[in-house]
Design goal:
It is built from one helix and 44 strands. By secondary structure, the protein is mainly beta.
Amino acid sequence: MKKILVLFMILTTYIFSQSWNDIVTTSISESNMTKMDLFTNKDGNHVITQNTNSSNSIKYYLLNSAGTTVIRSATIETEGSALFPNISGDNNKVYLVYKLGTNLKAKESTDAGASWSTISIAPLSIGSNTCNGVDIVYDYQGLHVVYATQDSYPDYETHYYKLNSSNAWVDYKNVTDGAEVGGFPTVSVSANRVHVAYNTGHESPVSNNGIAKSRDKNNTTWETAQTVNSSSSNERIHAGSSKLFDFYYKFEGTSFKLCSKTRDLSGTTWSTESILQTGSDVNDIVSATTTSDGKTHIVYSGTNNNEVYRSYDGSAWSSEYSFGYPTNTEIPIISSAGNDLFITLRNAYHSGIQYRQYDAIPVAPYAPSTAWNANNYAVVTWPANMEPDIASYKVYKMIEQTGWGCMATINYSLNTPSYSWVDEATTLGGRFDTKYNIYYKVLAKDIANHESNYSPTTTIYGKTDFFQKKNGEGNQTEVKEYGLQQNYPNPFNPSTEINYQIPSKGFVTLKVYDVLGNEVSTLVNEWQEAGSYNAQFTTSGKHLASGMYFYTLNAGKFTDTKKLILMK
């Protein structure tokens, strides 16, 4: 019974350790604010605001994960006529886009908002016609931008551009193809696809006489537009982990209803309509995000302008969660990093922007790697987590079967894209220097002391100063299992070393192949006793091009293949 009680207490602590933190009134005070956007990465919450001031209409703020500190701020636009500010990016880049006069202006920061560079080929001219919406999203392909301008009164057309890695505006498309009306655009992305939504309503986003439509760009091909709903207004497209969502408002009876439809990311058939709320305030568009666990989350203005949150777990929507403000909350924006959620909004009862965080357990660090540095010490390197509330990382080490031990704690540092730890107890040794498989893994710890799961394990084959195990045959290590190590150095030119081990006598082959599967070199082709071995692969005298190659070890029933890179 005591064990059951202890287990219940552990599970209860785990469940309730992940929760919504208290609402914070930030020091960002924008009494004349008309629009706000939010993007979150490892450095914090990047907030962009539009206000009606005549000399500083667009402002930027970097807010910490707790919402208690503005780390830095900047006036982005000194003219008073800027409109539609949007912010997006990844873990290391942040982009701002807004309309000023006849242009879309784009700015980029790679140092957590400390400095902003204007995109060299910007601004993007969009003409003098009236614009009724701009939206952006960033992924590995580039920065995707949609905007709608008035073609002929009162009709609008939606246009698409991509800002590529060379800071050039490319892939232009009139998404409405000029034959139909479509304004108030939004954009989202999934694997190899760009999803654009627009509404055929004319000047007012709440006219309720518009047709909600979506259109996909599949790699380089624009597919046929799809009708989502035939009578709606003010919609938002959002790509979740496995479904595409379209959120829209429609007027029925005496009030607006907030509705949603879904389809497969590459599908053509939209689901039946789900009514999320009746009596919603349609002044603010739904804001949506998807967390690392695959859940989609939205915030919107509910009945009496109270802020409402809901999540979708892949099969059903959660019940509504209200922040408790009875009236006069507006411009709700939700962002995510890892599984943490971050919400900003403005409330008429407070002069500052309001903020709230859902504090989840950090995501496990990903893709750790090991290599030898110039001093022949093992170095473990891993990318920074996306979450802005990471306090530190713990590095664990195991030498073959000795058990794991925590070797180091590395503290978080602002604007740091990756972290590393040098293991001076593990060095690069020769074939008979008592070498072992050395394993490393990393976990992340946030400021609330939540610890993530362990990262994947990374391995290196090296000599350690504090572990000895010999089988009595000189200095040869006792080998208990097959193993093929990563070549060193890698990339290489002109030669590299490949280490491997076999636990019993057998016929061994070690061969190198090109990316087409053609054999490049045979390094080993003989019977070998149990033990640890190395082989040298050299390109001297061979006419091999720079690029990726593969090496494969076959010994008994064991087969393993790894990549190596020749760089001339």
